[in-house]
């Protein structure tokens, strides 16, 4: 069981150790839940494992663990929910990188899934990862979570990844290339494309608490909405300020595709300012949680300051 620091003011070293322990849990659980490479059909399972275990910051699982931690839920009860969100994220990256979408050659500094396994196998790998995510929610959640909350978790992830969430946001993005969007339209696109899954990450972690209160869930959702937009703004900023080696993907790819971004619409200075304002709003929504929200605050800070 994870050491209970919820009643103490964490040091930076303690926060770092806790986040690293959750990253390690995520890696171990993903290794466990993914089919072995030698299981038939072997090439499909190899592609799935390549797509998921090919590095990554695991921000979304960390948000699930941190959200549950803020409510006093043990880490071992979060594994399936955290991995389900990460599998959806991984599937979306595989499909986003395809020639029909963003046509990217690099992901996390390595060849994209379709470059290694071919377009068709990559499509199937993405499909299978999406199915596996919902399998985990249907079969691997702990019995301590009430059935109604388990069903709510399935619904939250389905909405967040479908046409009213991530997939819908990607469709808006594809149709916005070369067009001039205003700030409200850009925000709407990213609330769906990036923000929906981040909000689901936080909600699924919170819903692992057997007695979650709707008012508490609403505060955590507001936190997640703010930090989800800040995440995308930081991504847009890094596309301008970052470099390919650090980013693990081509720098300036959004500019090259003439995609609408926050720096393009607001300018770099105002994009930085907007991210900072969202970060502060996110922190304010956590004020009622006390020190138990320290990991969420640390993740928020990382999101708005990260270099890749």
- CATH level-1 class: Mainly Alpha
Instruction: Report the helical percentage.
Output: 55-70%
CATH architecture: Orthogonal Bundle
Largest sheet: 2 strands, antiparallel
Total number of helices: 15
The average pLDDT is 91
Any idea what the shape is?
globular
Q: List the strand order in the largest sheet.
A: 1-2
What proportion of the residues form beta strands (DSSP E)? under 5%
Radius of gyration: 19 Å
Structure explained in plain terms:
- This protein has 308 residues and is mainly α.
- It has one domain (12-305): Farnesyl Diphosphate Synthase.
- The protein has helices at residues 12-33, 42-52, 59-70, 79-96, 113-117, 119-139, 147-161, 166-176, 183-207, 214-241, 244-247, 253-256, 262-266, 268-284, 294-305; strands at 106-107, 110-111.
- The protein has a two-stranded antiparallel sheet.
- Strand 1 and strand 2 form a beta hairpin.
- The longest helix is centred in the C-terminal third of the chain and has 28 residues, at 214-241.
- The radius of gyration is 19 Å and the shape is globular.
- The two termini are 31 Å apart.
- The relative contact order is 0.13.
- Mean pLDDT is 91; it is low at 1-8.
Key structural traits:
single chain, mainly alpha, Farnesyl Diphosphate Synthase, two-stranded antiparallel sheet, 2 strands, globular, disordered N terminus
Question: What is the element layout, followed by pairings?
Answer:
Elements (H helix, E strand, L loop, with lengths): L11 H22 L8 H11 L6 H12 L8 H18 L9 E2 L2 E2 L1 H5 L1 H21 L7 H15 L4 H11 L6 H25 L6 H28 L2 H4 L5 H4 L5 H5 L1 H17 L9 H12 L3
Antiparallel strand pairs: 1-2
Helix pairs in contact: 1-3, 1-4, 2-6, 3-4, 3-9, 3-15, 4-6, 4-9, 7-9, 8-9, 9-10, 10-14, 10-15, 14-15
């Amino acid at each position: 069981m994870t050491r209970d620091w919820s009643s103490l003011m964490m040091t930076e070293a303690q926060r770092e150790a806790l986040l690293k322990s959750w990253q390690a849990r995520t890696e171990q659980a993903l290794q466990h839940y993914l089919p072995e490479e030698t299981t038939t059909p072997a090439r499909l399972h190899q592609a799935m494992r390549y797509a998921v275990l090919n590095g990554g910051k695991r921000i979304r699982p960390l948000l699930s663990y941190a959200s549950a931690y803020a409510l006093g839920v043990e880490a071992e009860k979060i594994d399936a929910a955290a991995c389900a969100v990460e599998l959806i994220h991984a599937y979306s990256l595989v499909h986003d990188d395809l020639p029909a979408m963003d046509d990217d050659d690099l992901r996390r500094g390595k060849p994209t899934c379709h470059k290694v396994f071919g377009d068709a196998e990559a499509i199937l790998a993405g499909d299978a990862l999406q199915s596996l995510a919902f399998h985990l929610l249907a079969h691997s959640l702990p019995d301590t979570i009430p059935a109604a909350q388990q069903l709510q978790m399935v619904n939250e992830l389905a909405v967040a990844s479908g046409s009213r969430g991530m997939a819908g946001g990607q469709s808006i993005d594809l149709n916005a290339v070369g067009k001039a969007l205003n700030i409200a339209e850009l925000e709407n696109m990213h609330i769906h494309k990036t923000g929906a899954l981040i909000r689901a990450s936080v909600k699924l972690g919170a819903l692992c608490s057997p007695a979650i209160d709707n008012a508490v869930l609403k505060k955590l959702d507001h936190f997640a909405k703010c930090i989800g937009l800040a995440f995308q703004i930081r991504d847009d900023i890094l596309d301008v300020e970052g470099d390919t080696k650090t980013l693990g993907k081509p720098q300036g790819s959004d500019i090259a595709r003439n995609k609408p971004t926050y720096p393009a619409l607001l300018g770099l200075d105002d994009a930085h300012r907007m991210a900072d304002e969202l970060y502060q709003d996110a922190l304010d929504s956590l004020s009622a949680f006390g020190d138990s929200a320290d990991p969420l605050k640390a993740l928020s800070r990382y999101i708005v300051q990260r270099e890749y």
